[in-house]
Amino acid sequence: MKNLKGRTLRGGLAKLCGQGANFVLRFAYLMILARLLTPEDFGLVAMVMVVTGIFELFTSAGLSSAMIQQATITNEQISKLFWVNLLVGALLALLCVATAPVLVSFFHEPRLFWVTIAMAPAFLFGAAGVQHMAILQRQLRYVTITMIEIVALLSSIAVGIGMALAGFGYWAIVAAAVTVQAVSTICAVAVTRWVPGRFDRSTNIGSMLRYGGTVTLSGVVVYIAYNLDKVLLGRVWGVEALGVYGRAYQLINIPISNLNVAVGGVAFAALSRLQDDSIRFKAYFLKGYSLVVSMTIPVTIFCGLFADEIVTVVLGPKWSEAAPIFRLMSPTILIFAMINPLSWVLFSVGLQRRSLNIALTMTPILVCAYLIGLPYGAKGVAAAYSAAMALWLIPHIVWCLHNTSISPLELFSAISRPLLSGLIAASAAFGIGLYVNDAFALSALMRLIIGGGAMALIYVVVLLFILRQKDLYLDVLRGLKEPSSPNTYRSAP
Question: What pLDDT is recorded for position 219?
């Protein structure tokens, strides 16, 4: 664990930069596709992806997390995990094909048949690269991982835009989804140069299978909880309503997923190495948690205050109905930033079963919320979703931290100054926005630039200089300068 702090921070910085690039590329891609395709095109593919998204959770079968979490692991064990992943991927591809007529019948949409079948190869491609990517994560080679992700994303964007321009409609989205999985796996195999050995029945991976099974089951339950809203909307309100809701949801999910991916993988790998050192474990987690929340607060404020402008600039005027949905869901950006990192704690110390129990409790709460909001359409579902997540926040935190080395009081103390800075910045930005709108006739883009810039400046000044949290960021910078130790994981462990 020599120089773990420096390696972790550099890995986190690499992932953060990569996810920043990912964020920009995805936004640009969404802006272009929103102008080339229709809400119906997006809604049609969303009907398929709601279901195939469940299958995707089984692609890794939780075995990448299981491999990373292990203190020691042999090449024979990794090879066996690879073949298990590949078998699961093949079964998922067949299941995807078998699901096609079911989706046609459920949504009363015959076009879903071939769309569903076309998505099947993605599962085989994804499964083939699971252990190669896990090796890179275990080695903390996050610069490499970032480069792979960017190459895969650029390839999928090129395919998607090219097909959309050629008039293929919703097939552009399908082709892009398959491409990103294929290119990612090809790059990971090429970079690691790891070749799996034969399937050795005598190699013991029982504990990892149990760990992975619990992680997967927890992921499935969470996925259902967060995606049943789309199934219900598509069934009751149709393709177009789902298309509008889905674009707003995607816009909200971009900052959530990018930040979680940027920090989560690095934090999980580092905390897994520290699971037997409670003092360092707590210090690492609380600093990481504070950083995540402090970066998320201004994004949440920005999305809530400037929802109309964001939708107009990113999606275009024809998507104006998505703006109120986007605004209603904007609080969930901060909520997820506060609850997602708690999984780092649970998974790194082997409390994955608690995560499953929490998911099983949360799901009926969200389902009830969706059913309450469904009669009021997409806006009703969005409002109910945000309200349920806000009410669940405190119980979720308390339950996650129960009998761990971290108390809820320590957690809230770590984020008190970012939260206060956010309240001050939000109030100031709201006042500035009202004045600018009344005094000047500005375009949506200029309102975003002026309002967002003013809000960000106020937030940074208050947080770093008035509330004096600059020491945390200076400590991060010092950690980045620590000399790296030789990477002892260049070959598969």
Answer: 79
Using CA atoms, how far apart are residues 46 and 217, in angstroms rounded to an integer?
Answer: 22
Contacts for 218 with CB less than 8 Å, ≥ 6 apart: 352, 355, 356, 359
Cα 230 from chain centroid (whole Å): 17
Q: H/E element holding 441?
A: none
Six-digit token string for 290: 């504070």
Number of other CB atoms surrounding residue 282 within 10 Å: 17
User: For a pLDDT cut of 90, what percent of the chain falls above it?
Assistant: 28
pLDDT higher than 50, residue 489: no
Give me the number of domains the chain comprises: 1
Show the domain range for 52. Answer: 4-480
DSSP assignment of 108-149: T-TTHHHHHHHHTHHHHHHHHTHHHHHHHHHTT-HHHHHHHH
Contacts of 403 (CB under 8 A, 6+ apart): none
CA–CA dist 308, 327 (Å, integer): 8
Alpha helices in 374-443 (DSSP H): 377-401, 408-439
Q: What is the DSSP string of 197-251?
A: ----TTS--HHHHHHHHHHHHHHHHHHHHHHHHHHHHHHHH-HHHHHHHHHHHHH
pLDDT of 460 > 80? The answer is yes
pLDDT digits (tens, 9 = 90+) for 50-99: 788 888 877 776 667 767 666 677 888 888 888 888 998 999 999 999 99
Q: For residue 259, give the amino acid letter.
A: L
Answer whether residue 293 is part of any domain.
yes
490 is a domain residue: no
Query: What pLDDT is recorded for position 80?
Result: 87
The answer to whether residue 194 sits within a structural domain is: yes
Q: Is it the case that residue 113 has pLDDT exceeding 90?
A: yes
Written as one letter, the residue type at 324 is P
- How confident is the model over 179-210, as pLDDT tens digits? 999 999 999 999 998 888 887 777 777 777 78
Distance CA 472, CA 27 (A): 30
| 470 lies in some domain | yes
